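Please annotate the following for my students:
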Amino acid sequence: MKMKKFVAVAVAGCMAASLAACGSTASTSSAAASESTEGATAEAAAETTATGSGFTVQLGPNPETLDPALNSSVDGANTIITIFEPLLLIDEENKVIPGQAESYEKSPDGLTWTFHMRDGLKWSDGSDLTAKDFEYSFKRMADPNTAAPYAATAVGMIAGFDEAQGNPDPETGEPTTDPNPDALQVVASEDGKTLTVTLSYPCSYFDKLAAFAALSPVQQATVEANGDGWCTSPDTFVCNGPYMITDWTPSERIVLSKNPNYVGGWDSSKIVSDNITLLLLEDSSASYAAYNSGEAQLVKDVPTDEIPSLTKAEDGGDFYVDSILGTYYISLNDQREPFTDVRVRKALSLAIDRDYVANVIMQGTYSPAYNMVGPGIVDAEEGTMFIDNANGGEPYIGEDYEADLEEAKSLLAEAGYPGGEGFPTITYSANDAGYHIPVAEYLQQAWGELGITMNIDKVDWASFLPLRRAGDYDISRNGWVMDYNDASNMLELFTTGNGNNDGKYSNPEFDAAIEASKVADKTVHYEQLHKAEDILMEDMGCIPVAYYNDFWLQSPSLKGTWHSPYGYWYLQYGYIEE
């Protein structure tokens, strides 16, 4: 209990320091200090706000990439869904609707999906867009040279994927043959009006994948002429969504303007704002100042110390809290000692008081997580939830913290580190946003109860994702927000060689369960996914901490936008009400 009080005081002190620096142009933390030349202050943001009819939002810092095939963050996806359009779309009711394809059908056996393209489709540069552009983009996603983190998730069920990837070795992930992206069974008709996709097994949610931002089309000529730099400058950025990039000042803003050549699934009569300005702010105090000054009408990054003073929307205020389908978790570098020992991984997990983290550190804006797959994810039987049927209806991680802590100490002793003796000093890596550093400081104390010394490495956002993906860390904060409502979307992350498997967890039995779930029979599908979660949690391949909610400030004057349970803000219909 003393440890908890100490942490609460430390967090409050950290928040007070952040508040004291609110009006400064310098960063509010030591980690962000190195970013002060990168991040725009509220004053700078005000000077760069787009003129004319439009609105301004802050949904994150510099995106790591706006290449649909390479992006794996919600921050990047929030921009991508506004400037690109896939074959299908997800509407405000979370239903699949036509996008670039005006209609589609699947064969009775569920293996062949045929998409019929709209007439008059155009790229933002005015050139024609056809089914052949989607064929290219799907095959580019499957090409291992692209190194798309979502490749297996998004197109792994399409026939020919293994050959496209070079028939990777199941254990090492290394190709055993020359990769052949053209083997992927995605074929555009000669006239470019029809796209036919043949699956290797029935995938009931393939329509949702066809609406996934990662499977947005990219223009082959532009990609090949400009290489990786094609998506870093308005001069070379060709897209097909309702808005297009017309100005981009890194670490300050991206300005989106209405795409005059847009043809697609969104109602063009509702796309009324000339411009949408995205403030690229990593400092939540700067975001808050931009909101309070009226320069931004929506900000995602709200200073955590301000939350108690804010009035929720349901009470007539402008502070919104909305649940999303995602889990905040900790990645352990499972290939690095001492995290190769399952007893160590379990001990670190059991030493965390999740209720305290969610309700004190995170101020009740998140919920404690005792499973990996959280609430809201459906199961086989209609109306049932995956979490309710997991582990025989019992949480994988106990909710009795004091008992868990004692078990953690015993496990660490069994692993050869009684009282933490001989345990190496470890480093926890996190970017300095939201609750990430307060959570890290709590873990520093919680694991100190086991006799473990932990350092905190504050990493700027631009460096954080590459560091984590490369496995260049001991322990790292992590999280996943679902792209579609099927537990496979969360669990497939942990298969051997998956591009989003940052902890490098690998267990052949887990991989086999995921593979066995790829069947048309819903009962078998979900049985195998439950088995996979059983294995993952028994191995403690990662450490779930909390279930996500999104929280943000939004001016009553901003109308027409909506927030989805997948963590996206849809801005295309947004406007300022006079």
The CA atoms of residues 140 and 277 lie 30 Å apart. The two ends are 52 Å apart (CA to CA). Confidence is low (pLDDT under 50) at residues 1-52.
